[in-house]
Structures are given as C-alpha cells and as structure tokens.
Design a protein that fits this description.
Number of helices: 12
Structural class: alpha+beta
Keywords: Membrane, Transmembrane, Transmembrane helix
Strand order of the largest sheet: 2-3-1-4
Oligomer: single chain
Distance between the termini: 73 Å
Largest sheet: 4 strands, antiparallel
Number of strands: 4
Strand content: 5-15%
Organism: Falsiruegeria litorea
Protein name: Capsular polysaccharide transport system permease protein
InterPro entries: Bact_polysacc_biosynth/exp (IPR050445)
C-alpha cells in the first residue's frame, strides 16, 4: 500500500513538471513593447547640414549658371612647324652634311610661347583683351575684372585659351574662348599670326648663325687677296717688270745671241790675223768688236746674277721676290675660293632649313556657345559638395562612437 502511494505521488509530480515548463516557456516568449520611432536632434542636424552644405550651394550655383553666367563661344586653330628638306646642289658635289641642328623642338617653343606674357601683351595691344574679356558686367566669376594687371590677364588667358599638343606628331591645336564668336575667331587668328612671326624670327636667327662665321671667313679672305694683289702691283710699278720670268727668257736669248756673235767675231779675228798685215785696220776693228761684245755679255750676266759682281739689284733677286709675291697671291686666291664655297654652302644650307608655320585647321567661327558647360559644372558641384558633407558626417559619427 505504501509503495502504491509513492508511485501515485511520482506520477502526479511528472504531470506537474510539463505544465510548469510550458508556463515558463510562455513567459520567455513574450517581449516588451518597443518605443515608437521619432526624429532625434542629431537627425535634424544632419538634415539641416545636408540642406545648407549641399542642396543650397548647388541651387545657388544653378541659379548663377543659368541666370547670370554668359555664353562663351569657342574657336579652334591647328598648326604645325614645317621645315624645308630639299637637297642643295652642293650636297651633290661634295656630299655635305648639315651644318647645325636644333637643340629643342620648335613646337615645344611654340607651346610655351602661346602661354607667355609676351604673346598676351601683343594680342592685348592688337585686340584690346581687357575690353573683350570684361564685356559681361553681371558675370564676376567667368569674366575678367576691370583694370586687371598683366599678371591677372595672363592667368585669365590660361583659363580662356586651351592648348592641346602632341609631341609625337608635332601638332598643336589651340581653342580660344570669349563672349563673342567673332572675338574668339580674332583671338585665334592673332595667335596664329604671332606664332608664325615668331617662327620666322627663329628661322632668320638660324640662317644668320649659319652664315655669320662663313661670312667672316670670306671677308678675311677678300682682305688677304686684296693685299696680295696690291703687293704684286707695287712690285711691278717699282721694277717696271710685269713678269720677270718672261724678261729672263728675253735676257737669256740676248745673252745667247751675244755669245754667238762673240764666237763669229773671234773666228773673223783669227782669220784676219793669218791673212792680213800687222797694221791692218780690220784687225783693230775686230779687236774692238770683241771687247764690246765681251763687255755686253758681262753686263748681261751681271743683270742675271751670274757673275756676282756689283751691288745693284739683279734679276735673281727680282725673280725671288716675284715668286714670293706670286705664292702669296696664289694662296690668297685659293683661300678666297674656299671661303666663297663655304659661304655659298652655308647660304644654301640656311635656305634649305627654312621653317614656316603651316595651319591644318584655320580659325573657326562658332555658331552656338559651348561654354560654360552648365550641366557638367552643376553635377560636379553637387558631387563635390556631397562628398565633402559625407566625409565630415562620417568623421563626426566616428568621433562620437569613440567617446
């Protein structure tokens, strides 16, 4: 009986345990009610900051771009530097090479020249850029301020003139902008004219450099040739001899003739001695003739410098001086011919290397304004402001979470 009572008690305990477990489970499953969502102060701060930092500046930018910004017209001009490469006649004669080479590309020089203050001042003097760029009075952002300095004008010029340069091909394309289509075309044409003048000046300087040294050598050769010819003329005037060589040939002919006459006279004298009497006058005449011929031969030999007697100028000295002057003149003539050939070669080379500016796109005249690009500027403004606002917000929440 006791055992049966204990078993009934256990059975009743087992029946109560599932009921208690189900009661506990029902209590755990019930969650407390959440508070309703509402705008906090930080949320309103983010909203107002987004409006004032992004929406409002973008709206102001759009209002200015579409309400006050004036239309800008673009004109394009494209050009490159061309160099003559035709061969010269001197190259066919002697296979001459180039005399000089350029240390830098002409197109590189042009690229920097278009952005220089010198060009800006030249175009300003020609077209009055101050007046052209200050036309819109209600557009302080895209127009040039009145009474701008040359430095401010150059900075504004770099904004309104865009240069595209390809070093590989040597092509330069320039886009000019202004508030009038005709003004843009005039500015592009002025840039092309000034650039062409600058290239012509560089070409003239290169030609002058090529020919300057050759011209100096030619001038020196001309002076030397004149001096040699003047010395030869002075010698002929002093000696009254045009060509000592020809005179020597004449003197030698005269000496040979006298010697022949001397031989004939001696033969005649010997014949008279054998056939005539001692007091025959013909013997005395023959003797006198021999003496005269002997004296004349001696005199002619002295003139030729054979006998070495006397202190007068003999033909040998004259011939030596003449030959020295002749060598100087021939050397001066050869030097002159070489200098003249070098000068002609330098002139031909300078002409062959002449450079000029060739336009492959003439200055265009716009019909519709392309600038300012309002949609692109407005989109960039929105993206940049939104990016800045996002970064500032993330930094703010990062610092707040660390506290």
């Amino acid at each position: 009986m006791a055992a049966e009572g204990q078993a009934d008690a256990n059975m009743s305990t087992l029946r109560k345990q599932p009921q208690a477990a189900s009661a506990v489970a029902s209590v755990v499953e019930v969650a407390p009610a959440a508070r309703p969502a509402s705008m906090q102060a930080r949320h309103w701060l983010m909203l107002f900051s987004f409006i004032f930092a992004v929406i409002l500046p973008t709206a102001i930018s759009g209002y200015y771009l579409y309400g006050y910004a004036n239309d800008q017209y673009a004109s394009k001009v494209g050009f490159t530097v061309r160099k003559e490469e035709t061969g010269s006649g001197f190259e066919m004669l002697g296979g001459l090479t180039n005399i000089s080479g350029a240390s830098s590309s002409d197109t590189d020089i042009l690229y920097h020249f278009i952005q220089s203050q010198e060009l800006v001042q030249a175009v300003d003097t020609e077209l009055d850029l101050q007046k052209l760029y200050t036309k819109p009075e209600n557009d302080p952002i895209f127009s040039l301020k009145p009474d701008a300095t040359i430095e401010e004008l150059v900075d504004y010029w770099l904004r309104m003139v865009r240069i595209v340069y390809d070093p590989g091909t040597g092509l330069i394309e320039v886009e000019t902008r202004s508030f009038s289509a005709q003004d843009s075309q005039n500015i592009a044409a002025a840039i092309f004219r000034r650039s062409s003048a600058m290239i012509n000046e560089l070409s003239a300087i290169a030609r002058a450099d090529l020919t300057r040294y050759a011209k100096e050598e030619l001038d020196q050769a001309v002076v030397r040739l004149k001096e040699a010819r003047q010395a030869m003329t002075l010698f002929r005037n002093e000696t009254q001899i045009v060509d000592p060589g020809a005179d020597i040939q004449g003197q030698m002919g005269l000496l040979n003739s006298l010697q022949a006459q001397m031989a004939e006279t001696l033969i005649e004298q010997d014949l008279l001695r054998e056939t005539a009497r001692t007091n025959d006058p013909r013997l005395e005449q023959a003797r006198l003739k021999v003496e005269v011929i002997r004296k004349r031969i001696s005199e002619e030999r002295r003139k030729l410098g054979v006998s070495g007697e006397g202190d007068t100028r003999v033909f040998a000295d004259l011939v030596g001086e003449y030959e020295s002057l002749l060598v100087d003149r021939e050397f001066a003539e050869k030097t002159y011919l070489s200098a003249l050939l070098a000068y002609d070669t330098a002139v031909a080379e300078a002409r062959r290397q002449s450079r000029y500016l060739a336009a492959y796109v003439r200055p265009t005249l716009a019909e519709t304004p392309l600038y300012p690009q309002r949609e692109i500027l407005l989109a960039l403004t929105l993206i940049i402001l939104f990016g800045i606002w996002s970064i500032v917000t993330l930094v703010y929440y990062s610092l707040k979470d660390r506290r």
